[in-house]
Amino acid sequence: MEYRVLGKSGLKVSAISMGTFSFGGVGAFARVANQGVDDARRLIDLCIDGGVNLFDTANMYSFGRSEEILGEALKGRREGVLISSKARMRIGDGPNDEGVSRFHLIRECERSLKRLQTDHIDIYHMHEWDGVTPLEEMLSALDSLIQAGKVRYIGCSNYSGWHLMKALAVADQRNLARFVTQQVHYTLEAREAEYELLPISIDQGLGVTVWSPLAAGLLSGAFARDRAPKDSRQSAGWSEPPIRDQEKLWKIVDVLDEIALERNATAAQVALAWTLTRPAISSLVVGGLSEQHFRENIAAVDLKLTGEELDRLNLVSRAPYIYPYWHQHNFARDRFAAADRALHDSYEDLGSI
Fold this sequence. Notes:
Elements: E1 3-5, E2 12-14, E3 16-19, H1 37-49, E4 54-56, H2 65-73, E5 82-87, H3 102-116, E6 121-126, H4 135-147, E7 151-157, H5 161-174, E8 181-185, H6 197-204, E9 207-211, H7 246-263, H8 267-276, E10 281-286, H9 291-299, H10 307-317, H11 325-331, H12 338-344
Helix pairs in contact: 1-2, 1-9, 2-3, 3-4, 6-12, 7-8, 7-10
């Protein structure tokens, strides 16, 4: 296993981390899986043996049941691993059962601690933007949780670029704890994070963890134009993440399959290996329904793609060169910083546009 520092913190996380979205199977989450404590313990054992040290969950996964199962399965091993959880999403019918108010965050953190059977959460993510609660209130509440020893590091997830920069600016202005990480959706099929979120991460020193790095299995090798598993979450009606261009997706899958065949690897391993080469990436949060899924995903760390293979994947997958970036490409590329290159390096072959 490879371990990477999480942004500008001193915390090292495994390049592959374990997602627990499939634990519990309560409500709509049953469309994904229904893994109980015994299943979870078996898969966690395998991941720990493979060097995984970060386990990711959220208070709203199966309405808390995922955290309960993770806490139970980690009994006796908690001190050797890291737990990431999240809050913000609606978890009840009351007016304060969502958001990032001081009331909601402190209550939900304490509930998560009980479910996880631990006295602290290592990384606490704000699961989504809340445009109603002042950032000062959210950050002050998180700072209080850190001072109380209930949270070690904080991060955000699913923020836009201006949301993230505003939160960092408020933290700096008020001398409050700062986000050290963000969790984003980022795959060969969905590279929008390159426009703002990855450059911000480099510029501001945030580590990036990636949720659903195989696009809910669509990049795993199990799907093709004429092939879809009957037991997949898509077949059960799960629509996240959305696919904007189906034909582009299948062209990406074609290249993944070609490289996988050439390298005696799986398409999933190739997709994960590509993502691990990208700027600011600290860890890929992978799930799985079987031990084989996790063995293959963990082994992706050892697959080193060649420059030619990376070029093939880039050309078939890169996002549209939207404004103002094409203009910067024409007139500013001789003065790009490392943060700029997180996007622009993927278009170096174009010349003037």
